[in-house]
Amino acid sequence: MSLSRCFLFVAAVSCLLAETAATPILPRSDAPPIVDLGYSQYEGTTLSSKVNQYLGLRFAAPPVGNLRFRAPQDPVATTGIQEAKTLQTVCLGTGVKLSSSLQSEDCLFANVWTPSSATPTSKLPVWVYIQGGGYGSDSNGKYNGSTVVETSGQNIVVITFNYRVSAFGFLASEKIRANGDLNAGLLDQEFLLRWVKKYIIQFGGDPDHVVIHGASAGAGSVAMHLIAYGGRNDDLFVGGIGESVFFPTQPKVSELEWQFEQFVSDALCSGSVDELECLRSQNTTTLQAANKPRPYPGQTGNPAWYWTPSVDGDFIQDYPYKLFEQGKFVKVPVMFGDDTDEGTAFAPNAGSQAEVATFMRNNYPRLTANDTDAINAQYPLMAPLPGHLAYFPSVAAAYGEATLTCAGNFISNSYATYVSPQQVWNYRYNVHSTYYDEAGMGVPHTIETVAVFGVGNVGESATTDLQTGISTYNNNIVPVVMNYWISFVRALDPNTYKFATAPNWSSFGTGQDGGARLRFETNATEMELIPQDQVARCEFWKGLAETMEQ
Predict the structure, then answer these.
(1) CA dist list (Å): 320 to 312, 327, 333, 412
(2) Taking a C-beta distance cutoff of 8 angstroms, is the pair 209, 314 a contact?
(3) Handedness of CA 16, 19, 20, 21 (dihedral sign)
(4) Which of 51, 105, 170, 328 would be a feasible disulfide site paired with 323, CB 3.0-4.6 Å?
(5) Which among 431, 442, 415, 403 is positioned nearest to 336, based on CA atoms?
(6) 103 near 49, Cβ under 8 Å?
(7) 292/183 Cα distance (integer angstroms)
(8) What residues contact residue 95 under an 8 Å CB cut-off, 6+ apart?
(9) Any alpha helices (H) in 282-352, and if so which ranges?
(10) Residues near 525 by Cβ (< 8 Å), separated by ≥ 6?
């Protein structure tokens, strides 16, 4: 047993004494696990489920001061053993009061769950989860991967992490290109993947078998990594999962100078000889006060999502729809899917078609009056939903398909075309709950995440579990969903280790008749084809994708 393999502090003492004593001191079985990453040693916790949990591992240097608006840098080495037993702060989001103890600029931390029996020779498949939040917030830094590891039979390693969001992660300008790095939030994610490549073996993971998974903006991030650098494969992952792929407007850098100058003004840096230097020297309180949404030029209201990735010509070389259509993406097995009512969580309570048009232009400012007339024609008055005005169902359906559902379907078609129809799987989550149905929300955005991670493991778990019925009448869907995800991470196929009574999940196919997808329902999960009316509407949105800068 060499010193580099001594994960426990007492074990390390035993190793040293073994060189001078005939009878070495044996490690205590109840001693906490310790992992040595070279730059720091971290002490975690062994859970009753025989999972080692490491919380708050620093994977990059604090992106503060002169490191603002730059690519992440290696963390500074520490001495002694650092505790990794508490979740650390997430990155500052849009409009958050700085007094919050849960958010900070110093936020680049990762969390790891691994079998307590894992060693550097275990080479277990690795599951990296990218949280969502519309690129304006780290929406939930409290995901817990221990149940997934336990359910896998102690056969995977799970990682969650934070990345810069809002202005700190996505402020764009040619001035930043000249003296900084664009899309810093995405570069944080890439840096984490390179950290995993280098260090995950110390946790028992296989650096050559990493699957990236995300929900909402996390799923949009998965898509961005698939098309990064024009589809260049840097061998950072072997598969991808996207829940509700998020395609907001993602303008070119040249179109965002107004946003940069507005932020500079709000941060009290206007007139500075070097505006970026001023921003980097400014205190966090002032910057956070400037970290707020504004209407796009010519529009009347704030967009739902103000800070988004930009087309920088490097990491994102063109609009995502174009790159996927051209086959410029990493060719790996993928799973994509959506919820039946993606737009209900974001849509305004519209009472007229004029309000539908205004909302769509506020979010996609290059849409013309003719475009919004065409959108209203595609989404006429629909059946009413409880507690909402007449055109809420229409605007929710329009925004949901334009921004989320059709993006996932389009990527699935692209993979079926350029990779293999048998290496892409698609789904629709249609598990209803009394709470959301009575609220007029249907099956809303990313609600399947609670089934992926299991009861008690997503955010404010007690409330979420009750509202979705996951802890009660919908509980049967949890092992079905969770084991499909586990199976894909382990085998790059959702069927290999699926739940015993779950149906076979057929691949997307050739895209004829709309493509095949799995419809999740409590006690009624089965295959279906994407209906032709949705196929037609997605073709409509594809025709507007460049105008909408998607």
Answers:
(1) 12, 11, 18, 13
(2) no
(3) positive
(4) 328
(5) 415
(6) no
(7) 18
(8) 291, 292, 293
(9) 284-290, 320-325
(10) 477, 480, 502, 503, 518, 519
Position of tokens 């280098």? 198
pLDDT tier for residue 466 given thresholds of 50, 70 and 90: confident
Q: Please tell me what DSSP assigns to residue 405.
A: I
Q: What CA–CA distance (Å, rounded) separates 92 from 89?
A: 9
Count Cα neighbours of 501 within 13 Å in the Cβ-side half-sphere. 8
Rg of the Cα trace of the chain? 24
Q: Tokens 């379907």 belong to which residue?
A: 409
Residues 339-550: name the CATH superfamily: Alpha/Beta hydrolase fold, catalytic domain (3.40.50.1820)
Do 446 and 243 contact (CB within 8 A), yes or no?
yes
Residues 103/89, Cβ–Cβ less than 8 Å: yes
pLDDT, tens digit, 9 for 90 and up, residues 164-220:
999 999 999 999 999 999 999 999 999 999 999 999 999 999 999 999 999 999 999
Q: Domain coordinates of the chain in residue numbers?
A: 1-31, 45-253+307-332, 339-550
Report the DSSP beta bridge partners of residue 524: none
* Conformation bin of residue 536: beta by default, left when phi > 0, alpha when psi is -120 to 50: alpha
DSSP 3-state of 6: coil
Q: What are the phi and psi torsion angles at 529 (to 5°)? A: -95, 145
Q: Which residue has the tokens 């025989």?
A: 50
Q: Of 40, 173, 216, 433, which residue is the catalytic one?
A: 216
Question: What is the CA 500 to chain-centroid distance, rounded?
Answer: 29
Q: What is the pLDDT of residue 205?
A: 99
Taking the C-alpha atoms of residue 88 and residue 95, their distance in angstroms, rounded to an integer, is: 20
Closest listed residue to residue 279, CA positions, set 293, 295, 262 = 262
Q: Are 548 and 402 in contact (CB under 8 A)?
A: yes
Decide the pairing of beta strands 45-46 and 51-58.
Answer: antiparallel
Nearest Cα residue to 239 out of 169, 334, 115, 147: 334
Element (H, E) at 108: none
CB 409 within 8 A of CB 245: no
Both structure tokens of 278: 């001023």
Contact 445, 537 (CB under 8 A): no
Q: Is 216 a catalytic residue?
A: yes
The answer to whether the beta carbons of residues 490 and 400 sit under 8 Å apart is no
Same fold, 45-253+307-332 and 339-550: yes
Q: How many other CB atoms sit within 10 Å of the CB of residue 3?
A: 11
Q: Which residues contact 359 (CB under 8 A, 6 or more apart)?
A: 301, 347, 348, 350, 395, 399
- Fold observed for domain 45-253+307-332: Rossmann fold (3.40.50)
The contacts of residue 368 (CB under 8 Å, 6+ apart) are 547
Buried b (16+ CB within 10 A) or exposed e, 36-46: bbeebbbbbbe
Q: For residue 293, is it left (φ>0), alpha (ψ between -120 and 50) or beta?
A: beta
Residue 520 pairs in a beta bridge with: 429
pTM: 0.93
Distance CA 239, CA 127 (A): 10
- Residue 249 identity: T
Averaged over 130-154, what is the pLDDT?
A: 92
What pLDDT is recorded for position 513?
A: 64
